[in-house]
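Quick look at the format.
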Amino acid sequence: MRLCILDNDILDGHLAETCSSFGAMFVRLFDRAGVDWRMDIFNTQRGQYPASFDDFDAVLLTGSRADSFSDAPWAVELRRRVTTLLETRKKMVGVCFGHQLIALCMGAAVGRAPQGWGAGRMAYQWLDADFPQAAGRSEIALLASHQDQVFELPRGATLVARSAFCPVAAFTVGNAVFCIQPHPEFQEEVSAYLLEKHREILGEEKYIAARSSLKQGHEGDHVARMLMARYGPQANPDDLVTLRCDETLSIVDVARRSNAVVLTVLAVAADLVPLNVVPALNATARFGLVTLSRRQEAPALRIVREQLPGWVAAMGEKA
């Protein structure tokens, strides 16, 4: 799994010294969750983008102090690129600013929230019991810092989380897009710093309540595990496609250009990365059955498993 992180801010002062960047916060978040992904960070305000998004399995848009509806050239360019990614059904995750920008690119209204700033630890009603790693969940608590909101659910999206303060707190679009307003990557120290920075704007009563809420903890690390389950190697087993081809070189070429797994003779695919198979395939075996761990099996595979020992025994008797 290769993740493209589009970092949409340039931190300064204390946050730059302690956190480096929003992108780096996400790398640490996924590392804590045990995610074995390759993650590359590109700063959109500096005009940094990958040569091709095709090189990545998913794209994550971070938060930003900027407005998602800004006319700044970098924000206009980012919206143009995200619109293209939506058209190609690229897997994407949007957080805070990224959540708002993706919704905006989908035609939803986004702007200053009349409720004012969302700050500190905030609880949301969780609506999708089928979301990976969310079985039985009815609530989720995360750290927030935002004055803008998505005002309406984008067309074609499914509402995943909400609260009275933030009615569109998270949404999905099929299996491709997941957007969320609060910050799973934040730690309490980051929220405490931002609360102090916005203390005058928040007002003393709201500041004290938000500051006190940080003692209750948050579930950012669990959101990382949810995203791992949604976008990792075990995700969306029903989307798998099995390709068969009598011409070996053609099917090997498909594997070179995609994340497909191919079972073939090593000599014709020496440039591909070998996968460890458990148990290892014996070079003299007459039958080989290879599956991907944690993937959904086709119903007929159970029959093959049951019959395979008998077939192997029968071949041995004839030998």
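Next, a different chain entirely:
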Amino acid sequence: MRNPTPLLTASVVLPPLVGGGLALLAIYGTGIYGLALFFAVPFLLGWMATSMLRVAIGPQRLRRCLEVSGASALVLGALFLVFKAEGALCLLMALPIAVPFILLGTWAAWRAFHRRDLPPLSSTAALVLFAIVGIAIEPRFQRSVPPIVVSGVHVTATFVIASAFESAVPMPPETAHVDPAGWAVIVTS
């Protein structure tokens, strides 16, 4: 019988490397966080760890898959901190969004690969490719406002939900306005 430790280690370490690459592509390649960082990367992290576990040591119980996915998430968080891609506070704020998608990715892959005999590597490769394409085209669906030129000075208007913004940052009347729909318009030059 072969030693499963190196293969189990690969199941924990390789998904964060791919997930981290996708996250960096989303942040620095497209300049947006959005769906890719908060939904796709956590889902893929759980999916990849679970599919690699199936390849490495065969069918496992859901609990074991959740343990490996959780360890992968910790490795990804540590990589973000070590390489200063994200701060500790940002990671803590992302946890309530990311954890359910890690669990969902783990559960979906467990159902596909550990309860059934679907091919884990080709399915995972297709899902990663789909995520890369999704990250690449996501900026096309973002609503952005071009800078306004007033007397030769560029002015950028940023639209945020006023109730969330007001609770975090005081809004001086000369730089911000809340319209009747509840949007805060922050004007900077």
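The chain has six helices and four strands.

See the schema section for token definitions.
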